[in-house]
Amino acid sequence: MNDMTQIQPKTVWSHTPFNNKKIILSTDFKFVEKDYSYGNSIKLLIKWQNPLLESTTSSLAF
Fold first, then answer.
1. Distance CA 37, CA 15 (A)
2. Can you give the pTM of this predicted structure?
3. Max intra-chain CA distance, the chain
């Protein structure tokens, strides 16, 4: 993500299974401010090959 120079994500959403909130299965990066409609936004969805542990990730601030 740091190598992206033309566009930077504005929001990040992690997706967890309902029965275990400590495992991250996928992460959604959106490239529009929260104030705008998400319907026409550019998204990057990453489905992790090996789920991430929430404790090993840091909060990303954009």
1. 20
2. 0.68
3. 38
Cα–Cα dist 53/10, whole Å = 23
**CA 54 centroid distance within chain:** 13
Instruction: State the Cα–Cα distance between residues 43 and 28, nearest whole angstrom.
Output: 7
The residue whose two tokens read 């993500």 is: 1
CA 27, CA 12: separation in Å to the nearest integer? 7
Per-residue pLDDT of 30-53, as tens digits, reads 887 666 666 677 888 999 999 888
Q: Cβ distance 49 to 29 under 8 Å?
A: no
Taking alpha carbons only, the member of 41, 48, 38, 37 closest to residue 15 is 48
Question: Is residue 16's pLDDT more than 80?
Answer: yes
